[in-house]
Structures are given as C-alpha cells and as structure tokens.
Amino acid sequence: MRKQRKLANKQHPDAYTIARRRQGSVGVSLCVFLFTWILATLLIGELISIFVPKGVLSPSLSSFVSSDVAQYLIALPLAMLVLRRTPAIETRKFTMSLRQFGGFFAVSVPIMYAGSYIGLVASALISGGKAENRIADVVAGGNVWETLLFVVFLAPVVEEWLFRKQIIDRLRVYGEKRAIVFSALAFALFHMNMFQFFYAFGLGLVFGYMYVRTSQLRYSVFLHMIVNFQGSVIAMWISNNMMDSNGDLIKVENLNTQEIADLAPGFMFIGLYAMFMIVMFVFGIVLLARRKRYLEFYDSPLEIRGSAGTKALYGTVGVVGFLVVSILLNLLMLFV
C-alpha cells in the first residue's frame, strides 16, 4: 500500500504541488485576517475613545463594535481576496431531520462542559491561576440586547460562513476529515481565549461534520446560535437569579416568605433546565461512545492519503505561520 501511494505521488507531482500551494493560501488568508483584525480593532478602539463622548457607548458595546467592525468589514474582505485564489468546490446539498439535529445538539452538551473544564484548568495551570476570562467579562458587562445581536446572531452567521463554508469548501477536495479538523482548529484559535479553546475545537468538529454531510450552513448556524444563547443569555439569567447584589449565592434560609415566592418561578425554570441538560449530557455521551455507527466519511476526488496529505496542509508556510502566531497569541492573552 505504501509503495502504491509513493508511486501515485511520483506519477502526479503537479497535483501534490498544487494541493500544497492552494492549502497554503488558506493559511495565508487566515494570517491576513488575524493581523488585520487585531490592528483594526486597536485603531477603532482608539478612534472611539477620541471621537465618541464618554457615556455614549458602554464598555461592552464599545468592545463589541470595535472588534466586529474590524472583523467583518475590514479583516474578512481582505482575507477573502487571498482565500479566493483557492477554488471552492460545489457539492450536492442534503437535508437534516429534526431527530438528527437533536442528536448533534445532545453531543454538543458534553463537549461544551468537558471543554470548558479543560480550558479552565489549562488556563489556570499556564498562568498560575492569574488568567481571567475576558470574553465572559465583556458578555457579563453588557445587556441582553447587545448579547443577542453580537453573540447569538452575528457571530454564528459570520463564523460559520468563514470557517465552515469558505474553508471547508476549499479543503474538502483533499480529504473530508482533514478539512473538518483544520476548520475546527482555526475556529478555536481565532477565539484567542484559552478558556474557550477546547470546547470551541470540539464544537467546531461537530459543526464541520454537519456542514460536510449537508453542504448547508443553516444547520450548523442554528446549532451555533443555540450554543451561544445557552452560554451567554441563559447563563447570565441564571447567574442574576442565583446571586445576590454582592455576587454571592442566594441563601434561601435568609429570605422571607415574599422573597421566596418571588424567586420560585426562576428557581423552577433553573431546576427544569438543569434536568434537561443532564439528560442531554448523558444522551450525548452515549452518542459519542457509539459515534462509529453514525459517522460517515467519503473519499475526496483529490485526496492525498497518509502523512503526505497531512504535510501538504500542515507543512505549508502559510498554515505553519498561522498556527505559530495564533497559538502564541492565545497564550499571550492569558497574561494580558
């Protein structure tokens, strides 16, 4: 088998060279996106502080606006100029049943919780316990409408369009699994937050598989919205209803009858939500354990198998440069 692969590569040296060049361009485009996003965010933040009167924009809204304008209106168009040099392939579209979608949601639950815990531990170990989750602080400092617009709606649409459609459509021709893993890795690294890295990578694998099997963004976008809604709006609501004004857990024994009555509906919702998530967690674990029965992957027309295929992607200057810079930035953010 190894001799056959080596012979195939010798017979088609141009195909391997083209694959390296095109996949390397994907890495270059991500480098352009990353550098432009950071520089533009800093510039817009400075412009807001100079020209926008204090009090007009809240700190959280100012952060959302500067980051998203830099990302969506400046960095993304520039990155696409490079990314378009790598052709995207057209694939047949398939639908997904509600039952299948529910299965992917269930799988996402243990991935979220396990990934969050790993990220928390890793961040604490690397930073000596000094790192703070900046994104969580920004979301907690904003209001629900800001969170709905920027976190629940805008982010999933743009991120799925870039990391799933644009990247996977250009890489899947060289191997479905490799395309899914790379898109998930890029997605996780772009959060530039070690607290989020592990669950973002796991969820990126789920979103990527959903897209590869359907070639439609609506399913991964909708699941992404649900995940972000749970992690932001619902998490904020539970925190506000479980904590007192000092940020301490409410002690029911210290409340009077009227205060308990006022809190009862909220505690009932929290209890029902917790039970639902526990059921989904267990169901998701079962599905993950039996994943080989459900997952399907197909050979791609220009797939380069084995280590040669991995080198054709991860051995390119563009991808290596992106990985080195983005990993360093993720680590740096733990100390900023």
Write structural notes for this entry.
With 336 residues, this protein is mostly helical. It is globular and about 80 Å long. It has one domain (11-332). The model is unreliable at 1-11 (pLDDT under 50). The chain has helices at 2-11, 13-51, 59-83, 98-127, 134-141, 144-171, 176-189, 194-214, 217-242, 257-289, 306-314, 317-332. The longest helix has 39 residues, at 13-51. Keywords: Hydrolase, Membrane, Protease, Transmembrane, Transmembrane helix. Pfam families: Rce1-like. The chain crosses the membrane at residues 30-52, 64-83, 104-126, 138-158, 179-201, 260-289, 312-335.
- The shape, in one word, is globular
Secondary-structure-based class equals mainly alpha
Number of continuous helical runs = 12
Helix content: over 70%
The overall average pLDDT, rounded, is 89
Write the H/E string, N to C: HHHHHHHHHHHH
Helix and strand arrangement:
Blueprint: H1 2-11, H2 13-51, H3 59-83, H4 98-127, H5 134-141, H6 144-171, H7 176-189, H8 194-214, H9 217-242, H10 257-289, H11 306-314, H12 317-332
Transmembrane segments: 30-52, 64-83, 104-126, 138-158, 179-201, 260-289, 312-335
Keywords: Hydrolase, Membrane, Protease, Transmembrane, Transmembrane helix
Domain CAAX prenyl protease 2/Lysostaphin resistance protein A-like: 145-229
